[in-house]
Specification:
This protein is α+β, with helices and mostly antiparallel strands. 21% of the residues lie in helices and 43% in strands. An eight-stranded antiparallel beta barrel has the order 2-3-5-6-7-8-10-11. It is globular and about 40 Å long. 21% of the residues are buried.
Length: 198
């Protein structure tokens, strides 16, 4: 009787051991160890870093290409020269993508604005836009406003409906030179050039 009791206890212990290891009574092999993720080698990390740097360099190259920036941009820098006076811009705002024209029909192909202060301490603003051929203002529209235009205490010099070759747009830079701008009362003409880095 003691022998049978010991045998029975041995069977129970064996079954409990098999169940705890996840094995069945059919003699299956013990489960194999699962593969663990290995940390990337130093060479692989260097290769990934090199690829990322290459992608960043390519992106920078594309940004500085002749393709205009997408969406509105602000900040920037640049200058306006009127006759012999050079005025530095304090702000530059650009939208170099096509948009519907609110007045005159057609589309505005790009627009850029900048502000500054001239030697007399007067506020100055320049607005440059290009309208497509379906607009009544087809071509380049350039206007320089000097003074307090909000309170109608200003003078404007402009070139409306000029040929598209007047203004160059390369990447995020809008520029022109040798422009003849006429005052709004037709009493004065100035030679102007500008560069806006959007």
């Amino acid at each position: 009787m003691e022998i049978m009791k010991l045998f029975s206890m041995g069977v129970v212990s064996t079954v409990a051991l098999l169940m705890s290891t996840g094995c069945s009574g059919g003699g299956d092999a013990a489960p194999t160890a699962q593969p663990t993720a290995q940390a990337p080698s130093a060479a692989a990390q260097d290769s990934a870093t090199s690829d990322a740097e290459s992608d960043e360099a390519e992106t920078a190259k594309e940004t500085t290409s002749d393709t205009p920036a997408e969406g509105p941009t602000s900040g920037g820098s640049g200058t306006l020269t009127m006759d012999s006076e050079v005025i530095e811009f304090a702000t530059v705002l650009c939208y170099l993508q096509e948009q519907d024209s609110a007045g005159g029909g057609g589309k505005i192909l790009y627009t850029a604005q900048a502000t500054g202060v001239n030697a007399e301490g007067e506020d100055l603003m320049i607005d440059v836009s290009r309208y497509d051929e379906d607009s009544m203002f087809a071509g380049d529209s350039i206007e320089v406003v000097i003074g307090d235009y909000i309170n109608d205490d200003s003078v404007s010099y402009s070139l409306m409906g000029g040929e598209e070759k007047n203004v160059s747009v390369k990447g995020s830079t809008v520029s022109a030179s040798g422009l003849e701008l006429t005052s709004d009362d037709m009493s004065d003409t100035v030679t102007a050039s500008f560069e806006m880095n959007c």
